[in-house]
C-alpha cells in the first residue's frame, strides 16, 4: 500500500481536491520520473513510445474508446513525469495495463460497486470504470500525489468514480466504502495482508477479485487458511478476457461470508 498519508492532509476526500491542497502538492510532492541516466523523463518522448490503439480495444471499450485512449495518453505523459508509471511500461500500456484491467468488468453486474484498494495510477479501477459506466468504482489510495492525479483525471470525465484517500484497513475508509459488492487490487500485497484488508469492505456475499499472475492457484493453496479466517470462502482462479486479450487476465475470486451470530445460551439456575 506504500507510505501512509501525510499528517497534515485529510484521511479521505470523496469530492473534488481543494485548490489549496493541489497547490501544496505541486510545491512539495511533485515527483519527476527519471531515466537510467538520471535525467527527467520527457512527456513528449514517452508519448511517442505509446503504441497505436490495438483493434481489440474497440471491442472492450465500445463507444467509450476515445476516453480510454485519453487515459492511456495521460498515463504515458503526465503519469510518467509524476512518477506514477515507469517509462519502460509505456510501450506495453495497452496490453499489460489498460486492456488487462478493463476485462475485469466481465465479473461485475450492472449497478454494483467495485472498490479498488491501493489504486495508484488508477489500475485496475479506471479502465473498469471506462468500460463499465453502469458500475460505480471507488478508488482507495493513501498517497496524496496519486490521489490528486486520480481526481484530476476522473473528476471531470467519470461520474461513476469516487476517490477516497486512505488505507483500506483504516476505520475511516471502512466506514466510507464498506458494504461493497466487490473489492479488487493489483500488485498491492499477498493474501496474508490483502485478505484482512479486503474482507471488511465487502457486504455479505460480496466478492474479492484480486488480479494475480501465474502463481494464483499456488497462492490459494498456500494461503487458503488465511482467506478462510478473513471470511473469504470458495476461492477460485477465474480468467477474464479469454479470446480478447492475450494472455487472459488471471483473477482470484472469493466470496465474503459473514460469521453466523452466536447463539445465546441460558444460564442455568443454581439452587
What does this molecule look like?
This protein has 271 residues and is an alpha/beta fold. The chain has one domain (32-256): Vaccinia Virus protein VP39 (Rossmann fold), CATH 3.40.50. It is built from ten helices and seven strands. The chain has helices at residues 19-28, 43-49, 56-61, 65-81, 93-102, 125-131, 144-154, 171-177, 191-198, 216-229, and strands at residues 113-117, 136-141, 161-165, 180-186, 202-212, 232-240, 249-256. It has a seven-stranded mixed β-sheet, sandwiched between helices. Helix 2 (43-49) packs across helix 4 and helix 4 runs antiparallel to helix 6 (125-131). The chain is globular, with a radius of gyration of 20 Å. The termini are far apart. Mean pLDDT is 86; it is low at 1-17 and 23-40. S-adenosyl-L-methionine binds at residues 118, 123, 168-169, 186. Keywords: Cytoplasm, Methyltransferase, rRNA processing, S-adenosyl-L-methionine, Transferase. One of its GO terms (cellular component) is cytosol. Its EC number is 2.1.1.-. GO terms for molecular function: rRNA (guanine-N7-)-methyltransferase activity.
Topology, number of strands = 7
CATH architecture heading: 3-Layer(aba) Sandwich
User: How many whole angstroms does the radius of gyration measure?
Assistant: 20 Å
Helix and strand content put the structural class at: alpha/beta
Report the average pLDDT across residues.
86
Strand content: 15-25%
- Could you name the ranges where pLDDT drops below 50 across 5 or more consecutive residues? 1-17, 23-40
Q: So what's the CATH class?
A: Alpha Beta
Count of spatially separate domains = 1
Q: Estimate percent helicity.
A: 25-40%
- Given the structure, what is the number of helices? 10
Strand order of the largest sheet: 3-2-1-4-5-7-6
Determine the CATH topology.
Rossmann fold
Spell the H/E element sequence: HHHHHEHEHEHEHEHEE
Biggest sheet statistics: 7 strands, mixed
Silhouette: globular
* Corresponding CATH superfamily: Vaccinia Virus protein VP39
Distance between the termini: 58 Å
InterPro entries: rRNA_ssu_MeTfrase_G, SAM-dependent_MTases_sf
Pfam families: GidB (PF02527)
Subcellular location: Cytoplasm
Family: Belongs to the methyltransferase superfamily. RNA methyltransferase RsmG family.
